[in-house]
Hints:
With 250 residues, this protein is of the alpha/beta class. It has helices spanning 14-23, 70-80, 106-116, 135-149, 210-215, 231-238; strands spanning 2-6, 28-34, 53-55, 62-66, 87-94, 120-126, 157-161, 169-171, 183-187, 193-197, 219-223. It is 24% helix and 23% strand. The strands form 2 sheets. The chain has a 9-stranded mixed beta sheet, with helices on both faces. A two-stranded antiparallel sheet has the order 9-10. Helix 1 (14-23) packs across helix 4 and helix 2 (70-80) runs parallel beside helix 3 (106-116). The structure holds manganese (II) ion (MN).
Amino acid sequence: MRILIANDDGIYSPGILALAEVASEFGEVRIVAPDVEQSSMGHAITASRPLMYRPTPINNFDAYRVNGTPADCVALGLFHWQEKVDVVLSGINLGTNLGNSAWHSGTLAAAKQAVLFGCRGIAFSTPVTRDEPDFSTIKPFVKQTLELLLPQKDLTLLNVNIPVNAQGIKWTRQSVRHYDGKVVPFNDPMGREHFWFTVIPVEETEEDTDRYALAQGYVSITPLRLDLTNEEELARALNRDLQPQSNKTL
Ligand code: MN
């Protein structure tokens, strides 16, 4: 089995090494990852400047660094590995990717990019605290998850989050909650005003979701899809007249 590994934390992140070490028990591994951190870049691609693909062995793994986004890395990695890649793994991200994170996560974008290229994609994330994660406790769950998921080839795009000291695995759905969206002004050391924004959810954690599973101490596995069509709204819309309504009825 050929396993391409990417991330958004950059090629020198301890998370990508931990993932490569576990993945190497399942097949041939190659790492292709951004040369610097690209977290929260979402599914951005580089369209207006050339990309480089440079060999950068990491602990004897076949590895390449790219001056681009996570999605670029997967595109270049799939192109350069002439034989067909069986699965793209992304992570292990230092920080969870739950719920709304799916929209801006570079970790998930790498897995999504794999699916766009006709390959399977699995994203791995773990919470960070003040200290670096203890990968020795996380790696057994990465292995268990891969043992579960790799044979199930009909599952194409998966978002896996692994808590510290997990007590089991749960299938979940994506949590979608509204943000508080507060803008917090500060001053820099030069007295210039700048802004941060908060993304604190305003609703409770829904049961059966990725966020709920993590809060209960379980590994969360969410099957995702690329088709964002809102089927219910489309069905309603199809029953409506395509002529614009008059101003009176607005
Ligand atoms: Mn990241």
